[in-house]
Amino acid sequence: MSSLSPSAASDAGALTDGINPVRASIISARIDRLPSVATLWRLVALLSIGGFFELYDLFQTAYISPGLIRDGIFNTGNLGVFGFSDQAAFASATFLGLFLGASLLSPIADRFGRRAIFTVALIWYTIATVLMGIQSSALGIIGMRFLVGIGLGVELVTIDAYLSELVPKRMRSSAFAFAFFVQFLSVPAVALMSWWLVPQAPFGISGWRWVVLASAVFALFIWWLRSRLPESPRWLAQQGRFEEAEQIMDALEARCLRDHGKALDQPEPQAVSVEGVGRFADIWQPPYRRRAIMLIVFHVFQAIGFFGFGNWLPALLSGQGVSVTHSLMYAFIITLAYPLGPLLFVKFANRFENKWQIVGSALGSMIFGTLFAMQASALGLIICGVMITFCNAWLSFAYHSYQSELFPTNIRARAVGFCYSFSRLSTVFSSLIIGFFLDHFGTPGVLAFIVSSMLIVMITIGRFGPRTRNLALENIAHH
Description:
CATH class: Mainly Alpha
CATH superfamily: MFS general substrate transporter like domains
Distance between the termini: 35 Å
Strand content: under 5%
Order of helices and strands: HHHHHHHHHHHHHHHHHHHHH
Shape: globular
Number of strands: 0
Number of helices: 21
CATH topology: Growth Hormone, Chain: A
Structural class: mainly alpha
Radius of gyration: 23 Å
Number of domains: 1
């Protein structure tokens, strides 16, 4: 049952007999008038919990590698299967898979829908993870890791596209903040699980296998939960499937009405274009070409700051004279800021432009990165490390929200996936550069590299990024 008033329903009925763009504009307006109630937050949670796995897997590399080395599966240095460290090959396979999944396979979410790709990507991830967990050779584990990365690459891009389309314009940034609070819980989770399991062999099975297989079991549970998710009404409208979109909106409005306890605001339709099937070439048409180039430059350099600090944190602490034991303890304390940052911004994120949140968080990373290099005390290192992590988490949810707003629905997953994939490619090469800087210039040299990268992030987004706050997705896309 629709929650439209009788007069509004009559007007809508008259309009839906018209041309497709009018019906699409009504779908968009009905989404943007929804209140911020429990029904929408439950849907956001169901979507975001899938992203938990990408970060769980990304941060898994450093924690399970000691177990793989102890089992004699991984070798260090030129004894590795490819002539270099198996741990490095494992990490490279992950990011190569993420790159290919995001750049080459994300367009299928524009072609076949958000909900269908959630299901396929999660099943893909689960099967590849189980296969990785039962391998006994370095080549087998690295090969399966590559397949895991492909599934995750498709998954996260689809989450961003769906989340931006599902929630009303006035809660988009807060929805992404909450989503990343859920996703960043994976960082301390994998640290704790690895600390507990990797040194052991429960039931005679190596601890690292339990860490890997646990995420596959959890993914199956999430797959079951996600069966309740509807398809994106905005995507259905762009496909001309208006009856399906309107049925989903009727059900969603009825649930929101029960939560809200009073009549919903009247929808205010604005002109919406029905673009049809998107193509890769559409990304390079004005105004999207400028936005795509901006995001590519941004992703190359933001990845240096985010992964450069996060993945190298224990080494950076050791470079400041902290013992290995203490560096791991300090690193765990610092990782707690990952979920805390987005959680603190849930109430405030919608009050500020996403572009300026990106600039502000990058500035914070620069300031505290510089201060980190000057610290000699444990307290100073922890405080600066926590603040860098806090700013990186803020940067992460702000740019995920921002990039999903900049393109129209028919090419959203394709464009976001292509631009986002450059952060994965950047990480492969920046890791080598950071290793070089750490060897030759120490922790201050690495942090100077990270700070310079964040300066480029600030200039790129601050100078070339369009405003998006409180604007309908369709208005952002075409201006």
